[in-house]
Amino acid sequence: MVYIGICDDDRCFLDYIENRIEEIVKAENIVAKIYKINNGIDLLKAYDKKNKPFDIIFLDIDMPKMDGLEVAEIIRKKDEETILIFLTSMEDVVYKAFKYDTFRFIRKSHMDKELEEALQSSLEKLKDEKHIFKTTNGDLSLYISDILYFEFMDRAVYIKTFDGIYKTNIRRFKDIEDIFGHKGFVSIHRSCMVNENYVKSLGNLDIILDNDEKLPVSRYRMEEVKRSFIKVARRG
User: Are residue 108 and residue 13 in the same domain, yes or no?
Assistant: First the structure.
């Protein structure tokens, strides 16, 4: 699940962006929860309940009471990871936002053209986040692109990379599914999730990875695995 916040004081504009985002994530086969917020103060209140309530925030610069730059400054003190995308009709203030580690700027006059690229690029960025895993040998830092697959065995989640296999302290496979289900991984059976970018070929009820390892696929998951394989192949 990808959590997306949209903050703009124009309610009609909020509805329009929400509809476009829904169309884009649906085409990408990504499940997203979208939150519409019409002022910066309410956006910041979300951080009172959770350290990182959103994966992506679309933030209007020109808002009453508290503008988008003021909101971004407070957000960055709490959250250095959330992807910030500014919405603006004031192109002359864009340079002021660079210090907030801004991912993209979308000009409202070019919304149709720029929104899709910004969102797709954001989703790709999310797929290669760095994660810290607690393992039996201490903390392990991995980019998503380092991981071949996750597997649940003997009441623990194991991580397989090109370099080795690591036993984590994670005791529920659902915890992995909740985090990585929208980050380029596909379930091949109920206790294994594979990085879709490393599936080299499909068999009748198995797959071969780029390291030539063969893994079994549940017949109930095969169609989903095929769709994932085709999507990656088309992307090139």
Answer: yes
Model confidence pLDDT, tens digit, residues 182-233: 788 999 999 999 999 999 999 999 999 999 999 999 999 999 999 988 888 7
Please check whether residues 155 and 95 belong to one and the same domain: no
Whole-number Å distance between alpha carbons of 43 and 71 = 8
Instruction: Tally the domains of the chain.
Output: 2
Let me know whether 206 and 143 are in one domain.
Answer: yes
Domain boundary among 79, 97, 126: 126
User: Which of 92 and 233 is assigned the larger pLDDT?
Assistant: 233
Please say which residue of 126, 154, 171 terminates a domain: 126
Could you tell me the two tokens for 214? 């063969």
Distance of alpha carbon 46 from alpha carbon 154, whole angstroms: 38
Query: Would you tell me how many other CB atoms lie within 10 Å of the CB of residue 83?
Result: 21
Are the CB atoms for 165 and 140 separated by under 8 Å? no
Q: In the chain, where do the E strands start and end?
A: 2-7, 32-37, 56-60, 83-88, 104-107, 130-135, 138-143, 147-153, 156-161, 165-167, 185-189, 192-195, 199-202, 206-209, 214-216
d(CA 187, CA 151): 10
